[in-house]
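Dear colleagues,

For the upcoming journal club I promised to circulate an example of a predicted protein-ligand complex. I picked one with magnesium ion because it came up in last month's discussion. The inputs are reproduced below in full, followed by the predicted structure.
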Amino acid sequence: MTDTDTFESPVYYDDDANRDYIDDKTVAVLGYGSQGHAHAQNLADSGVDVIVGLREDSSSWGAAEDDGLRVATPVEAAAEADVVSMLVPDTVQPDVFEDVREELDAGDTLQFAHGFNIHYNQIQPPEDVDVTMIAPKSPGHLVRRNYENGEGTPGLLAVYQDATGDAKAEALAYAHAIGCTDAGVVETSFREETETDLFGEQAVLCGGISALVKAGYETLVDAGYSREMAYFECLNEMKLIVDLMYEGGIGAMWDSVSDTAEYGGLTRGDDVVDDAVRERMDEILEGVQDGTFAREWIAENQAGRPSYTQLRTAEKNHDIEAVGEDLRGLFAWDDGTESEEQEAEEASRVGMRE
Ligand SMILES: NC(=O)C1=CN([C@@H]2O[C@H](COP(=O)(O)OP(=O)(O)OC[C@H]3O[C@@H](n4cnc5c(N)ncnc54)[C@H](OP(=O)(O)O)[C@@H]3O)[C@@H](O)[C@H]2O)C=CC1
Ligand SMILES: CC[C@](O)(C(C)=O)C(=O)O
Ligand SMILES: [Mg+2]
Ligand SMILES: [Mg+2]
């Protein structure tokens, strides 16, 4: 039994949520990408009235309809809704918000899955609406898969504006309906969610880990080892190691690997992530906190994403991707016959990247 009294932040579970706050409402889910498809389908399967908001020429329109959901333009969806869930990409949210602003009636809710546009002042909501966040701590495709498996996904809850007095209760009910209170919802602020999320994805989860994998791979290949050996050692086994940490903490990983690996890792790990790396992590965090990263990302989008496009191409063309594609085709668990669900997931992920 977990002693939640020792937690620094309040954590809420299924029993803390009262579904009455969402069950008779209509939720407009704007966007049907990674988070949008998961929230919309989970809400609908939980019995909540959902309408998906997409632009008329949207490539996701057909997918949402095929999944049995009502679809309309963002303005039409928001006009019908009591809760508007802003699940289009962060960079387009300010424009979409301006489109739907007039449809937000007093007492409605503007709901986010990430605090970027509120925290960095790119969206200024009317004072008479609730502004809340339920941010699953997971890619959207797993939010859906976990719901279907009955496992739930951990999430964060924040209230930026409580015009009705019910903002938190409604957010908790929403979290319940998408499966987050099943796993636990941690209460936070828009500032804390935004800054930790951006730092985490840049320095550790997405940027840090992929740079570490590529650096390890390049070190081995440059030293004359085979690309296949380097791939298995630095990328494939990463999942197995992270799974152990996920299930039982770093200790479970040390328990499972050999004493040789444990001693080698304990003595050499800090040589890789040394004081210089920690200083650069501090710099990355400062850039998030003082808005430097946000300004850079907004300007990059306004300029048509020139650096982003170039970086994406270089990443796609890295040698580890080519060897990985060949090797994964040979894995026992990948017999080339993807299930319909896997195919749909892959198609949607690829669609979102393009
Ligand atoms: N990705 C994730 O797992 C996580 C995301 N978040 C947050 O969730 C939010 C949504 O992110 P994510 O799910 O990645 O978004 P996606 O990039 O997956 O969203 C794509 C969807 O948005 C639609 N869309 C794009 N541009 C517009 C537009 N101008 N007008 C209307 N619809 C548009 C697309 O439709 P179309 O076919 O028209 O392009 C598509 O349906 C963000 O705030 C993000 O930070 C939070 C936690 C994790
Ligand atoms: C780690 C990346 C993420 O923050 C996430 C899936 O939580 C995102 O913005 O996609
Ligand atoms: Mg995140
Ligand atoms: Mg993020």
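Two points we might discuss: The chain has two domains: 4-188, 199-353. The beta strands are 11-12, 26-30, 49-53, 70-72, 83-86, 109-112, 130-136, 155-161, 185-187.

See you all on Thursday,
B. R.
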